Amino acid sequence: MANILIIDDSVMSRNKLKKILDSSDHTVVGEAQDGVEGLAKFKKLSPDLVTLDVTMPNMDGLQCLREILAEKSDAKVVMITALGKGDTMLEALDAGAADYITKPFEDANVLGVIAGALEQG
Amino acid sequence: MFNKYFGNYILSRKIFNIEQIKSVLAKQQAARPKLGVLAIESGYLTAFQVDRVHRLQVLHDKRFGELAIAEGYLDERQLEELLNKQKTSQVLLGQILVDEGLLTYDGYESLLKDYKKDSGFSDLEIDILKRSHADEVVNLFVKEDGTGPVVELFKEYVELFIRNLVRFIDSDVILDWAYSVANYESEGMAVQEIVGDHRIETGLAGQDEVLVRFASIYAGETLSSLDDLAKDALGEFMNSQNGLFVSNLYHKNINCNLNPQHFMNRTNIRQRGRLYVLPCQLSFGKITIIFNR
Q1: At the top level of CATH, which class does the domain A3-119 belong to?
Q2: Does the distance separating the beta carbons of B220 and A16 come in below 8 Å?
Q3: To 10 degrees, what angle do helices B123-131 and B134-141 make?
Q4: Which end of chain A is more exposed for a tag (fewer CB within 10 A), N or C?
């Protein structure tokens, strides 16, 4: 059971994620549509976990990830991306992301990855 | 897939009246082997499991395959294999036309000859349509420029696009001929640029009502106009399509990335090197795939 912040420029993706998370024990405490808004909400809401889209206008996901981890080094961030290619995700994992989910996502996969990320020390 | 093309041809020739066509299509649908039967034949599901999925279908408005995966009876690969078997096991339209007494064998043979002549398909190409392999079918409809690197890239893109259309939007996809133009005007288009080793402008265009239906299916929500959510869903479809395409390129040591997708109203795209246009007929209307490299 965790408080989760969703950062994604797509309202459809946010709706889908929210629906999946609402059907579980988790609580969506906030939503943001780009990295700038997401970082502000992260500071304000102190969520247990952040789902963070990679491709976004203003501040992209990788930059936002770095800013979040600079704010709180043990923050749990799960990246969401349509890009299943290795280097982007490796870069995110190297930077400190807990895990990643590729779009289009499925309920079981989302909840499984989030559960795994929350279990990480 | 041959049935769809040949069926469209019969419709366009107005050989039969609409009631006859509806009756034939209904019989063709009923003649399709059930996924459950194919799953038992393949040894993937027991009769008990098939029965359970059928009972779940009564409770949930979901397809057999979706529920079988959710229950852990099938994985994605097995489902794809069964769906392919189902497609290739389709009773040929011609057989039903003859069985129904709408055509004699001579009449069918003659109609088929007309179809080959009018469509320009060779016997080999008709066979490809009957086998319904996406990569071979794409080759049939993308003949522009022979085998240059850009057209090969376009073919890869279209092949993936068709798979995603079938997977997420509509299993009834009929390709039209691809062509290249100097510029392409559209009332509305979801656009995303692929950047890096390749720089490609990609788009999904169509009339508003078709795009709204497309977006509704992809978002899993009932949408009534081309509002922000609908445009967002179209962009997300493009993002997923292009994400997979870029990932495939990455495995060939071609490094690309994606710019954020967006929706353009009343747009006019100008050709860079080659601007390809591929119209596709879905069960609810026509969409157009744009590929500008």
Answers
A1: alpha beta
A2: yes
A3: 140
A4: C
